[in-house]
């Protein structure tokens, strides 16, 4: 076992003891995770669930990485069980894009089940998935129960978040903040010429959220994710930790990591954990631009591209903080703690 792993295992033991100590609600950050669980969602969820100072009120699922939203919900429950937190409720959300444009017609790189096709040796009780209340109604209800207290972390397509705005316009100012992993700032696409996957899945929803929500919003774009990959040596040590969580992440990321290395990728790219990191540790952000941004929904080649008005040509009030750089040392520390 490497010295790096031993040091972090010692830190983990201390963290585990801290997690046993009761925390008063007023000292905790209240969070809702709106996700489409693929591999990076799983890592991001683990990061949040490892923090005793963060209280996850609910996991709301949206169709994204998985072909069906119910599979996203099952994947979310798998992550919660691996983290020992199956007590957190999971809600079924939007099963199709805001305008009904079904663009998902093939298996994405997360595997057929969006969890790397890793065997599920100990499947959770899927009856725990809450289908009595739609995820959008959950967002509305909880934003009323905890006004201006909840950080909504949106790691998938923004369909649920946009629908919540359509059903209850006042929700736009009831969240404390919204953290979004999605969009792009230089027109570099990872699913098309100019589109990032989450915005590509539902451009109209992304446009609604950026244009109409009034609470503070932070965006972690695709190009920034590319600049904050994990070196393969770190990735190997991190996933080799002898914990249930690490074994789970190693299993679901095995096929993807092999593929990335075969393609000659210099690092392991995982986008969603960057978004959760800035919630857990606000000091991790080293560069940010406050600007006006929207989403192109009509372009023949640029549909779903996030358009940033860097020079203020539209004379619009800035609506987002775009995260440009993070402290990698602090980020890796959070990842190790998550395991």
UniProtKB/TrEMBL annotation:
Residues 31-332 form the Inosine/uridine-preferring nucleoside hydrolase domain. The keyword Nucleotide-binding does not apply. GO terms for molecular function: hydrolase activity, hydrolyzing N-glycosyl compounds. The keyword Hydrolase applies. Pfam families: IU_nuc_hydro. Residues 1-18 form the signal peptide. This is Uncharacterized protein C1683.06c-like. It comes from Branchiostoma belcheri (Amphioxus). The gene is LOC109470360.
């Amino acid at each position: 076992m490497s010295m790096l792993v031993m040091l972090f295992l010692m830190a983990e033991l201390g963290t585990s003891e801290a997690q046993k100590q009761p925390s008063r609600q007023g000292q905790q950050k209240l969070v809702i995770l709106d996700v489409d669980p693929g591999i990076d969602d799983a890592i991001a969820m683990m990061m949040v669930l490892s923090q005793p100072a963060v209280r996850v009120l609910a996991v709301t699922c949206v169709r994204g990485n998985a072909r069906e939203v119910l599979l996203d919900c099952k994947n979310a429950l798998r992550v919660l069980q691996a983290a020992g937190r199956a007590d957190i409720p999971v809600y079924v959300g939007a099963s199709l894009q805001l305008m009904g444009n079904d663009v998902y017609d093939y298996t994405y790189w997360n595997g057929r089940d969006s969890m790397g096709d890793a065997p599920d040796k100990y499947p959770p009780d899927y009856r725990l998935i809450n289908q009595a209340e739609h995820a959008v109604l959950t967002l509305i209800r909880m934003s009323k129960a905890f006004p201006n207290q909840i950080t909504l972390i949106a790691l998938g397509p923004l369909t649920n978040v946009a629908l919540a705005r359509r059903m209850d316009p006042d929700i736009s100012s009831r969240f404390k903040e919204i953290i979004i992993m999605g969009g792009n700032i230089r027109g570099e696409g990872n699913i098309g010429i100019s589109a990032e996957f989450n915005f590509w899945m539902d451009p109209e929803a992304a446009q609604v959220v950026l244009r109409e929500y009034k609470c503070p919003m932070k965006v972690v774009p695709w190009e920034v994710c590319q600049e904050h990959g994990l070196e393969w040596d770190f990735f190997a040590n991190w996933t080799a930790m002898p914990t249930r969580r690490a074994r789970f992440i190693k299993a679901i990321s095995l096929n993807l990591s092999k593929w990335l290395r075969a393609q000659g990728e210099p690092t392991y790219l995982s986008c969603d954990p960057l978004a959760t990191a800035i919630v857990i540790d606000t000091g991790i952000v080293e560069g940010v631009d406050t600007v006006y941004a929207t989403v192109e929904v009509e372009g023949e080649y640029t549909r779903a591209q996030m358009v940033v008005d860097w020079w203020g040509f539209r004379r619009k009030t800035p609506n987002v903080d775009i995260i440009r750089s993070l402290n990698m040392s602090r980020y890796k520390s959070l990842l190790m703690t998550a395991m």
